[in-house]
């Protein structure tokens, strides 16, 4: 386990592990990276996969980021993914923050590679989509937990997280929208926690990804 972590760290440092993906949004944990007080416009902590780590390492202590603890770097106060009941919300799926509209004034926004790759017979590896084409892309989900009032991400558990939206044939484009059920209940005043999840469908190396966000339901009519 320790040696796996060391190997992972080594590979990251060598730049051999790259082109993983995450859903970027101001409401995410680790938006600015994991150096206190530093806003890293090219942060990539969020894309670290959690495959083959023991659950204790990626859930209870660091929630989703393998290294280091993302739970200590919540979004700025007031930054949430807003979930309009009966509507949709949009995130940016990319390999690091530098490739999104959140950094460098959008100068390095990743191209949507869909067209370039649609004919590929092999697994697309850069960016690492883990799929041959859009049709076979595994799909990604968002789940929500209502337990996380008091802003305490440690109250989020597998038991109180509920998947509320699935987007088939993703990851694919950078801008990706997810539908919100009309009946999604309102969150406590200080919001809910959401989680983005992706388990690629065995194209290339097996992997799994998970990342936390603060979120809140807008215009909820049920409770
Ligand atoms: C961001 O980091 C990636 C490597 O993770 C690098 O390829 C890219 O050039 C960096 N972008 C900027 C704008 O520094
Ligand atoms: C991240 O950096 C942005 C831009 O500098 C800043 O507005 C925001 O408050 C920072 N977020 C956190 C959680 O520090
Ligand atoms: C997508 O990839 C799969 C697996 O290689 C293949 O069977 C399928 O024909 C491809 N679909 C398209 C639209 O290229």
Topology:
Layout: H1 2-14, E1 22-24, H2 55-61, E2 81-84, E3 88-94, H3 114-117, E4 140-145, E5 161-167, E6 175-179, E7 192-198, E8 209-218
Parallel strand pairs: 2-8
Antiparallel strand pairs: 1-3, 3-6, 4-5, 4-7, 7-8
- In sequence order, what are the helices and strands, one letter per element? HEHEEHEEEEE
Structural class: alpha+beta
Summed up, the domain count is 1
What proportion of the residues is helical, as a percent range?
Answer: 10-25%
Instruction: Give the beta-strand count.
Output: 8
CATH arch. level architecture: Distorted Sandwich
Radius of gyration: 17 Å
* Number of helical regions: 3
Q: What's the overall geometry?
A: globular
CATH topology assignment: Coagulation Factor XIII, Chain A, domain 1
Name the quaternary structure.
Answer: single chain
Mean pLDDT: 83
Strand line-up across the major sheet: 2-8-7-4-5
Q: Could you tell me the strand content as a percent range? A: 15-25%
Small-molecule binders here are:
2-acetamido-2-deoxy-beta-D-glucopyranose
Distance between the termini: 43 Å
| Largest sheet geometry | 5 strands, mixed
- What is the level 1 CATH name? Mainly Beta
Low-confidence stretches: 1-18
Protein name: Lytic polysaccharide monooxygenase
Keywords: Copper, Disulfide bond, Glycoprotein, Metal-binding, Monooxygenase, Oxidoreductase, Secreted, Signal
Pfam family, one: LPMO_AA14
Signal peptide: 1-19
């Amino acid at each position: 386990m320790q040696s796996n972590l060391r190997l992972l760290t080594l590979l990251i440092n060598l730049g051999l592990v790259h082109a993983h993906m995450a859903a970027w949004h101001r409401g995410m944990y680790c938006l600015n990276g994991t150096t206190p007080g530093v806003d890293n416009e090219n942060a990539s902590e969020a894309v670290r996969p959690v495959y083959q780590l023991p659950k204790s390492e990626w859930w209870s202590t660091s929630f989703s980021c393998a290294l280091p603890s993302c739970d200590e770097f919540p979004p700025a106060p007031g930054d949430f993914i807003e979930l309009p009941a009966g509507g949709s919300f949009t995130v940016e799926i990319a390999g690091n923050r530098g490739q999104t509209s959140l950094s460098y004034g959008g100068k390095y926004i990743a191209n949507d590679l869909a067209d370039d790759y649609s004919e590929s017979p092999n697994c697309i590896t850069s960016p690492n989509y883990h799929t041959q084409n859009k049709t076979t892309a595994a799909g990604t989900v968002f789940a929500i937990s209502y337990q996380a009032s008091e802003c305490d991400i440690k109250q989020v558990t597998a038991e109180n997280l509920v998947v509320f939206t699935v987007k088939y044939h993703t990851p694919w484009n950078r801008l990706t929208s997810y539908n919100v059920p009309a009946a999604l209940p309102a969150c406590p005043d200080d919001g809910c926690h959401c989680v983005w999840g992706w388990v690629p469908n065995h194209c290339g190396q097996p992997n799994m990804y998970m990342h936390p966000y603060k979120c809140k339901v807008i215009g909820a009519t049920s409770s």
